[in-house]
Amino acid sequence: MMVPTPYYVALSSVLLTIGMVGVLTRRSAIMMFLSIELMLNAANLAIVAFARQWSASGAETALSGQAAVFIILAIAAAEVAVGLGILVAIFRHRVSTDVDELSEVRL
Amino acid sequence: MSSVVQWAALAPLLALVGSLINAFFGRSLKEPAPGVIASLMVAGGFVLSVLAFIGLQGSDHGVQVTLWHYLLGGSLSVDVGFMIDRLSVTMMLIITGVGLLIHIYSIGYMHGDDGNSRYFSELNLFIFAMLVLVMASSFPLMFIGWEGVGVCSYLLIGFWYRDKANPDAGRKAFIVNRIGDVGFLLAMFLTFKVFGTLNIAAVNAAAPGMLYGAGALTAIGLLYLLGATGKSAQLPLQVWLPDAMAGPTPVSALIHAATMVTAGVYLIARLGAVYAMAPGAAGTVAWVGAITAFIAAFAAFAQTDIKKILAYSTISQIGYMIAAVGAGAYWVGIFHVLTHAFFKALLFLSAGSVIHAMGGEQDIRKMGGLGRRMKITGNTALIATLAISGVPFLAGFFSKDAILSSTLTSGLLAGSGNDVLYVILLVTAAMTAAYMFRWYYGIFAGESRVDKHAAEHLHESPAVMTWPLGILAFGSIAVGYLGLPEFAFPNLIHRWLQPATARVDFNELASSTDWWLIGLSILMVAIGIGVGWWVYHVRKGAPVAGLKDSTLAGASRGALGFDALYRILFIASGEGLSGGIAALDRDVVDRGLAGIGGGGTVLLSRLARLAQSGFARAYAFAMLLGVLTLVVVAALTGVLK
Amino acid sequence: MIALAVIVVPILFAVVTGLAGSRRRAALGFGLFSTLATFVLALFLPGSSGISTPWIPGIGVTFTLSPTGAGSVLTIVAALTMIPTVLMAARRVERDPGAFVALLLLMQGALAGIFLARDLVLFYVSWEAALIPSMLMLGTFGRDKRRAAVLKYLVYAIGGSFLMLISILAIKPLSGAASYRFTDLMAATPHLAGATQVWLFIGLAIGMAVKLPLWPLHSWLIDFNEQNHPSGAADVAGTLYKVGGFGFFAWAMPLLPVAVNRVGPVLLGLAVATALYGAIAAAAQTDMKRLLAYASLSHMGIVGVGIFGLHLAGLNGAIFLLAAQMLSTGGMFLVSGMLYERKGSFDLDRYGGLAKSAPALAALSLFVLFTFIGVPGLANFPGEFLSLLGAYQHHPWAAAFATLSVIGAGVYGVNLYQRLYQGEEREASFDVGALEVFALIPLIAGILWLGIFPSPQLSRIQTQSQLIATPTASATAEAPAALAAAPARAGGATDLLGSTGVPGEGPVAPDAPLGGSR
User: Fold this and answer.
1) What angle do CA C468, C471, C476 make, to 5 degrees?
2) Per-residue pLDDT reduced to its tens digit, B544-595
């Protein structure tokens, strides 16, 4: 028996919201990254759920949805690698990872 | 004979050519070449004027010579053209005739001055402009001559520019003239509005068909009067003429006695048809003339400068002319222009002769008894003095008498108090005789107050200066006979000018009344001369010696304080206004607008800068908000289907 | 074709001259050749044909030039004025005269574009294009406070132009015209609603008012003139660039007549204020350049009076004055440059008595000065006279006030002359050299030509004036008819002449015998 899609979407939105709140309220850079990952994976969940729902209409729809998840996972990994690299570089300068203190990025 | 008349259109050109020759080549010419050239040009103009005079003997109408098209604007069309009729020819004869004599005189007077060629260039330019003024067939062209003579007057008054007082006097003349010019301009605008044309003949032809006493006609008349008061030094714009005496004396003779200052009289005479239809304006003209005549005569008594007395006398005499044309007696006004040109030019030139002989002295308190050493000058000056006083059988008598009786009998002035006008002019006649006697006696007769050093220098002027004096003296007697009293004698000048001027009704008086009036004016002259004789010759000036510091004398010397009043009212406030506006512009308008622009920009940028906090989370939140807004809007507008 | 040449030739020569850089002889040679050639070409404008080709078809912009009408008159006079300007600039600019002359030539090309364009967008492009050289002249070659002056100038000019651009872009779609060509716009704009016309007009008006200049948007002009290069050449270019009046005349007013009727009186009032304000403020100045700036502001006020008076005579006169003041105001600025050569300052207190050692300069500058203050017979007078007369016909009081500025002109003009030339001399100076005489001759010739024979130019201007809807269009029949109908007016007095009465009576008795009247 298939779990109905709305449940997956609901779970996905809950995860997204948790991630969003995490990004907005956390001060530590690493925790912000964590929350961003959470949001990405929430989006992944939603894509997979819809891929499964529309799989009845054709094999490519299901497969392209799942392929998209892989692409997103890869991009997420790359982005985290770069971001952590920048963070380490900053950490070497300032010891702290508190985002609020990094407010010199101003235009 | 109209072709002969047409040639008169060349007269201004001759003068212009003379002016240009002297302007460009004058400095390389040796004296007296500049003066001779200038005089020849004016002589040529005189010859042309005489030919035109002869040519117009038979015909009533003048000749219009149209040269080229000048202005265009919708229904407005103005040509450069001349109207040579009896009125303009009369003025041309005066301008070129008296002008020629003064040019010749100047050859002697300006001998040795290093601005000699510049002088003659400007004098010729003046003749050009004045001729254009009297010959113009349209108002804008007349205005070109009108302002042109103002420009020349400015240049010639300030001729000896090294001394700042002279150009300052010229500036005063120019600016007061310009105030009058505003009147002339507005009059032209209104004339176009009412008549639809700026051609003088057309306006004169249309005027009788207009509403008698219409407000617009009166306004036109008053505005032209304002222009005339500026040019002719009448109330309220008379203050420039006494200062204008700073210029060389022949200039004073030509410009500020015989010609430029009579331009206002000419203007009103030329527009007689309009004034004849606007009794309000005509009455104002007459009153302005009469009051000015009186005030100027009053002011002449306390002056001590040989030329200033004559200046006030000029203002006064022009007042007579203005009163005449205001009364509608246009030929009378021009007649007095003619006679006045002769004896006033003569007075000025003899004054110049005296100044020349006295090495530059102009204060009459340092003169006296000069007639014994300068026979020709003295005798001609005497003739001129008698003429201006209105002594019978000399020119001034005839013209002044004509003025007096025309103001009394004018139908145009009926109801404007022309009896009072007559009395004012009559009393002024007595004053004229008196102050002119003082002038003559103080300079040429009586005891000599000349100091020793100047006395040695004293000599009669050279022939080039005395010949013009003689000719003018002859004219000061003979010219009057052109206008013998009409009730008993043939009047040539009236008949001559009649076709060219508008007709106005005058009351006829009984023949005996006319004789009584003549007797009355002779009586006034006798009173004036008699008082002068008694005070200065018999009592040697004792009765007035004590008056020197009185308020009456002060009022006279200051010409009733108009100058001082204007200085406070206009000059001081003008300078204040000027400085105020300049400061206002610099500090308020400039800084204000710049402040708005600049300050506004700074404010906006400060507001914008608040968003650039550098806080990453703030940026993240902003992104979130943005996305949410987009989603909501998309959902609401149904973009997502 | 000639119209195109008049624009292209200066621009080409500008490039060449710009490359000459600091080589003075080359700058002089190229510049003089270019200006003379342009002037000769310009003389052939009347009677030549125009151009009209599509330029940006997508939005309906064409490249249309028309050599007839007022634009040709202004182009010819501007070309004449450029000759002495380039001459003086090439000789008097200390470093990089080639660049300066190149900028002048660029301006000339752009100005020709403004005057001859008959496509609204082309007009705007030229309008803005001329801004760049004048800004560069001020910013690079100006005096010590030039930075502030340039900034002010740019803010005013661009601020105004921005609003103008909005109106320009809006006018075609709103009116439904086929393209931006004048003829197409004229056909389409009658369909615009009154309120729309007013808003479009206001947008155009603000941009043009800055360039007129009209009070209170004039402040840029004062510093512009004061800070420009002392030779006066850049100021002459600035004078040529006072094209606001032309903009109103050629574009804003013919296209939007309803707006003109509504907004016109306000603009007329501002123009009167400008005329008086400029003259009054000029009288108090002690810096020669500022004096000339305020004085020329006053003249432009009269141009405004003529334009907004909405009478054919006034419109003719206003554009004629615009042309004439190129020569007279330009001439005055060049004279001021010549005076600066002698005394090194524009402060009037330093001058006096120059007539003694420089009599020819005194005479020449007196001639230009008298033209400048409107002495009849010289170039400014026909323009001033017609402007004021035209305005008087419908707005007598406004015109009367504007006429008062004539007195102010007398005051500042004569004061200027006297402070410079009369009185005692402080230190000896030198009279005009060949350069200066050659520079002033074209201007004097032009002044005489325009002053003595204004009529041909006026009729050319009138062909364009007639495109503006004026109240007189219907009333022209009345005035001559009033004359002709004089005898027949027994019963009905016209409203022109006030109260009722019986015409033709009074002291004037047509055929009275000689004895009874005088």
Assistant:
1) 105
2) 777 777 777 778 877 788 888 887 888 888 888 888 888 888 887 777 777 7
Distance of alpha carbon A80 from alpha carbon A93, whole angstroms: 20
Handedness of CA B177, B179, B183, B184 (dihedral sign): positive
Mutate to test the interface with C, among B24, B27, B75, B121 (most CBs of C within 10 A): B75
Mutating which of A17, A20, A23 best tests the B interface, going by the most B Cβ atoms within 10 A?
A: A23
Peptide bond into B236 cis (omega under 30): yes
Residue B624 to residue A107, Cβ atoms within 8 A:
no
CB of B627 within 8 Å of any CB in chain A?
A: no
Reduce the DSSP state of residue B487 to 3 states and report it: coil
H/E stretch holding B80: strand B76-84
Which tokens in the block code for residue A51?
């891929």
Q: Count CB neighbours of C431 within 10 A.
A: 14
> Is the distance from CB of C295 to CB of B582 less than 8 angstroms?
no
Report CB contact under 8 Å: C516, B506. Answer: yes
Burial class (CB in 10 A: 0-12, 13-18, 19+), C322: buried
Q: What is the pLDDT of residue C497?
A: 33
Q: How far is CA C229 from CA B67, C35, C136, C145, C344, in A?
A: 44, 20, 11, 11, 12
User: Rounded to whole angstroms, how far apart are CA atoms B191 and B185?
Assistant: 10
Q: Which residues of A touch B (CB under 8 A)?
A: 20, 23-24, 99-100, 102-107
Compute and round to an integer the Cα radius of gyration of chain A. Answer: 18
Q: Decide if A83 is inside a domain.
A: yes
End-to-end CA distance of chain A: 55
Contacts of B613 in chain A (CB under 8 A): 103, 106
Return phi, psi of residue B138, to 5°.
Answer: -135, 160
Written as six digits, the tokens of C197 are: 């016309």
Q: Flag if B214 and C363 touch (Cβ within 8 Å).
A: no
Q: Closest Cα to residue C221, out of C124, C168, C272, C295?
A: C295
pLDDT the model gives residue C372 = 93
Residue A72 is part of which domain span?
Answer: 5-95
Distance from C-alpha of B358 to C-alpha of B457, rounded to nearest angstrom: 7
Which residues of chain B neighbour A103 with C-beta distances below 8 Å? 613-616
In angstroms, the first-to-last Cα distance of chain C is 67
Provide the pLDDT for residue A104.
61
Q: C109: pLDDT confidence band, cut at 50, 70 and 90? A: very high
> Please, is A58 exposed, middle or buried when counting C-beta atoms within 10 Å of its C-beta (0-12, 13-18, 19+)?
exposed
Range with the poorest average pLDDT among A69-73, B599-603, C80-84, C332-336 = B599-603
Distance (Å, rounded) from C-alpha C79 to C-alpha C42?
7
Number of domains making up chain A = 1
Kindly report whether the peptide bond that precedes residue B462 is cis, defined as omega within 30 degrees of 0: no
* B195 in C contact zone (CB under 8 Å): yes
| Both tokens assigned to C168 | 């320009």
Phi, psi of C241 (to 5 degrees): -85, 10
**Residue % of chain A over a pLDDT of 70:** 83
Residue C510's pLDDT band (boundaries 50, 70, 90)? very low
Q: Dump the DSSP string for B183-206.
A: HHHHHHHHHHHHHS--BHHHHHHH
Residue A32 maps to which CATH number? 1.10.287.3510
Contact C249, C318 (CB under 8 A): yes
With CA atoms as reference, the chain B residue closest to A106 would be B614
Q: Is the ipTM of this complex over 0.85?
A: yes
Calculate the CA dihedral of residues B125, B126, B129, B135 and round it to 10 degrees. -120
Q: Which residue has the tokens 């005070």?
A: B535
pLDDT digits (tens, 9 = 90+) for B154-188: 999 999 988 888 999 999 999 999 999 999 999 99
Whether A107 is in a domain gets the answer no
Q: Cβ–Cβ of C479/B179 closer than 8 Å?
A: no
